[in-house]
Amino acid sequence: MKNDRGDIELAGVCKSFDGVTNVVDGVNLKIADGAYCCFIGPSGCGKTTILRMIAGHEDPTAGEIVIGGQNVVGLAPVQRRTAMMFQSYALFPHLTVRENIAFALRVRGQSKSDRLRAADAMIEKVRLTQFADRLPAQLSGGQQQRVALARAAITEPRVLLLDEPLSALDEQLRVQMRQELRRMQQELGITFIHVTHTQLEAIALADLVVVMEQGKIKQAGAARDVYAHPHDRYVAEFMGGQNVLSGRVEKVNGASFTLAQAAPSGIEVPLQARSTVSVGDKVDIAVRRDDVALVRPGRDLPPGCTTSLPSRVLAIEYQGYFVKVMLDTVPDDEFVAYVPEKTFFADPFTVGDVVMATWATGSALPLA
Amino acid sequence: MSAVLADMPEIAAPATTKAIAPSKGGRPWTFYVLATLFACYVIALYGPMFCIYILSFQDIRGGLVFPMKGRSLHWFVDLFTQVRTGDVKGSFDRSIKLAVIVTVITVVVSFLAGLGFRKRFRGDTFVFYMMIGSLVAPGLVLGLGTGLLFQALGLNASWYTSALGAQLSWTLPFGVLVMFAVMSRFNHAWEEAAYDLGASRWQSIRLVMIPVLAPGLVAVALFGFTLSYDEFARSLQTAGSLNTLPLEIWSMTLNVTSPSLYALGTVTTIVSFIVIGASLGSIVLIQKKRGSRVRA
To answer: How far apart (Å, rounded) are the C-alpha atoms in residues A210 and A190?
Structure first.
């Protein structure tokens, strides 16, 4: 019986190309069947290497890769029933769209009429019928991507691996093709693993976001978890949308602690379950940029806010539905407030103004 | 000094009308200078050959120099009928056969070398320089050495053994260099994609690499054929008792004093052009075939 489960388990997977440094360093991860999983990290963090190991284009130096309960290390891509979509799509330049898509069936020895019929059905699925007889060079970037997707999907793989699939497209098309990828994933009902270095892409698409740094997983979780509750400073800064502040713990009082900062009363931070802090510890905290409110000095703070940091406005960027206000709140780190457009223009600030940056105490998040 | 300064505006003014950038309609003067230079170059390149071609069409009174005496195909007939002019037909046969063998070996070996050099391996630079070495070695010396070696080993030199080897020492490095240039434009992700889609190594070579590289392989074949077909220096001491065509022509220049020599030059040129035309035609055909499926 054919095993159609596409759940993946990585157990202690390591990869070293030179025998000295591990590009992938002891990765453990479970990906559910039919999930859309995004690996994200800066270039050189090992995300593509993990993808290629799952695909069967690289062998891990150590560890196990289990797909559908079966250890696939050493198996060819076909035996794994995975398919890969390459970064530049790698469409065969001498074959038409139809022949490209039928290629996998051709090498399996299917008769010409059978494979072309199957290819045509797939071409319809990716809405390329009128381009079926074109060569890849005569297609736009978005159309090429659809061909690559169709070519990979025609073998009915249980896992589809996508290596930076949207990086070759321009901004507008990227958003459009992003939705198409998600639609195809739901239509095919198989596991997608997608490597990207764009945060927006990852959180827009993924059921499971895996943030990587130097061959290690920094945090893996639902998109909202990773974005709103980053585990540490690296994840918070990489995913963006957060202000990260650090300081020493001044006092611990029950459910919260106070962080010494350049503020008259320090910063009160709720003590979350995972963090145990004691006086004198150096702690990083994160405050979402859209949680920060700006108040003119001397005015009352909004309810629920106990911390206020005097700051000067360094720069203002209009972003449409919000205004990005950059502040000098903390000496070394960036501190930014995303102020809703209407709020901002009710009482606009100008560069150089002194404001009080504040946020609801409960929204500050201590980082590991 | 003051006179020079006074002249300056007059010199400067015409310069604006004779600008290098094309003005409306007319071409800049530099175009005519370069066009003349190019015309001289073409005359220098093809003039000598055209002298030969023209003189080969003289009638029976024809001599080896201008002026041209009459017009006929007499010397072409003479070339293939008269025994005294030498073994033209036999040497032509041998040259074509040898060129075909050299072409096949060059294409196969260059393609395999191209595959081998996709990845770096121990000693790859050494192998590469060894190859280039045989390219820069003087052909006459190399041919002489090959002849001597065959003699020392007690083997008879002949066009299909020693001459073949000597010619390959010339065509293989060329073929491999062309192949490297062709391979540098081959995206290795294509191979990976083929493997990913389940192609065996042989299928990925047959269905992806060879078709994609086909125009390049035709170019290698063309190189192999033409280099072998007019190879002289390396063949001189290695062809044995039976001559190849260039050797035959050379010996004819020593003892034939009729325009049939020129007729031979015209015939061999026509053969060369047919081969080049066929090669380029096949490249165009490959591209057209790919293009026509688009319109279908």
So the answer is: 18
Q: What is the pLDDT of residues A186-229, one digit of tens each?
A: 988 899 999 998 888 899 999 999 999 999 999 999 999 999 99
- Average pLDDT rounded to a whole number, residues B156-160: 82
Nearest chain A Cα distance for residue B99, angstroms: 30
ipTM computed for the complex: 0.83
Q: How far is B279 from chain A (nearest CA, A)?
A: 19
Q: Which residues of B touch A86 (CB under 8 A)?
A: 189, 192-193
Residue B198 sits at the vertex; the CA angle it makes with A94 and A65, to the nearest 5 degrees, is: 130
Indicate the Cα dihedral angle B22, B28, B31, B32, nearest 10°.
150
pLDDT confidence of residue B291: 63
CB spacing of A92 vs B212 below 8 angstroms: yes
Measured CA to CA, the distance from residue A10 to residue A220 in angstroms comes to 13
What are A24's two structure tokens? 């992938």
Q: What letter does residue A74 receive in the DSSP assignment?
A: T
Q: Closest to B294 (Cβ–Cβ): which among A86, A107, A135?
A: A135
Q: Which amino acid is at A340?
A: P
Instruction: Please name every residue paired with A283 in a beta bridge, in sequence order, or none if there are none.
Output: A247
Q: How close B266 gets to chain A, by Cα (Å)?
A: 39
A214: left (phi over 0), alpha (psi -120 to 50) or beta: left
The model's pLDDT over B52-104, given as tens digits with 9 standing for 90+, comes to 888 888 887 777 777 877 788 877 887 777 666 567 778 888 888 999 999 99
Q: Does B190 touch chain A (CB under 8 A)?
A: yes
pLDDT in the model for residue A221: 93
Contact A53, A39 (CB under 8 A): no
Q: Going by DSSP bridges, is the β-strand pair A305-318/A354-360 parallel, antiparallel, or unpaired?
A: antiparallel
Nearest residue in chain B measured CA to CA from A83: B196
Say how far apart CA A16 and CA A9 lie, in whole Å: 20
The per-residue pLDDT for range A297-317, each reduced to its tens digit, is 888 888 888 888 888 999 999
Percent of chain B predicted with pLDDT > 70 = 88
B198, A87: Cβ pair inside 8 Å?
no
